Amino acid sequence: MSRVEAYEGVLEQAGADAFVLTSEPAVQHACGVRLYTHRLIPQRPIVCVVAPPGPPVAVVCVLEEDQLAAEHPGLAVRPFREFGDDPWEKVAGVLAERGAGRVVVEDAMPAAWLAALHERLPGANLVVSYDLPLEPRLVKDEAEQALLAEASRVAERALAAGAEACVAGRSEREVADRIAARFQELVPGAGEVRGTCIAPQNNRSMHHTSGDDLLPQSGPVRLGVVARVDGYWMLITRMLVLGEDPDFEEAYARYLRVYEETMAELVAGADPADVYERCRERAAAAGFELTTLKIGHGTGLDFRERPWIAPFDDLALAPGMVLAYDYGLESEAEYVLHVEDRVLVTEEGPKRLSDGWRLADLRGGFRSF
Questions:
Q1: Measured distance CA(252)–CA(166) in Å, rounded
Q2: Tell me, what's the pLDDT at 135?
Q3: Nearest CA-CA partner of 339 in 274, 253, 281, 273
Q4: What CA–CA distance (Å, rounded) separates 221 from 321?
Q5: Which residues, at least 6 apart from 36, have a Cβ–Cβ distance to it below 8 Å?
Q6: Secondary-structure breakdown of the chain: helix, strand, coil percentages, each rounded to the nearest 5
Q7: What pTM was estimated for this model as a whole?
């Protein structure tokens, strides 16, 4: 079911023609928009009008257009000037175009905004609702799943470009820039794109800004790419090894067994706390200590959403959830072993959206595209 169809069903039950949404979670839920002004300049309205069967329309300040064009290229936008324009006339215009007579507004809308909309829609029936579909989109619809799957494949291609650039004497920054450039080439409208390269001498760091350190002749390298595609977060991490490092390769093989066996438990109905505990037990049996407080989490419009694959979350996994699955374990040589995937929970079991076969081939490098 598409996002618009889901809202259409809710409106039908309410006997209404449209939603007017203004709170951050409601706007983000309905049309994918997340703008800093929701928090930093709350008096500047960001309004999402949902009036099926047409797509959602965002009424935003003209200053937001560049970001929306980059992160949400398909979104219908009605901009208003911050000074001199009336945003509520824009909202009323969209509702009039859609023929909306009965309009549901959320109870979180400020009274002054509601009064302004009343004034501009004298013939409309505005209903304040305390029961709107405001829950974060933990379960993704088919379009969202397809977008995250394609973004995962693009991320792999960007990492392949980075892997080809991993040669002794090249700086971390050069490799990271190659990854980011390849991703932006493949997805011109992506936002917040950043590549990462962690050289062997920096490999104990879980999070690291790639700098001028040069890649040596041997040792493990960690590559990553982070970006937002149409507002949805993407992050994939991979490892490769330069030269000869048999001790690391043996430790990586043990890590991979724990990683893959635990991924197989990301099934519909699974309890996150149970999955975490079994991962901890597997890691211990393989000679590692799991110290991180989580081994994954939901992801989408928010980078970190529930469920948390952690001891403190009891939200069962459900079909349609997309998980950021990752955790680091430290090898005996004090290197960090760490990869990250996007995993879709389905009725049949977990489906890796990224090309996970490369995880098993540290020395063979990445397939060329």
A1: 19
A2: 56
A3: 253
A4: 30
A5: none
A6: 35, 25, 40
A7: 0.76
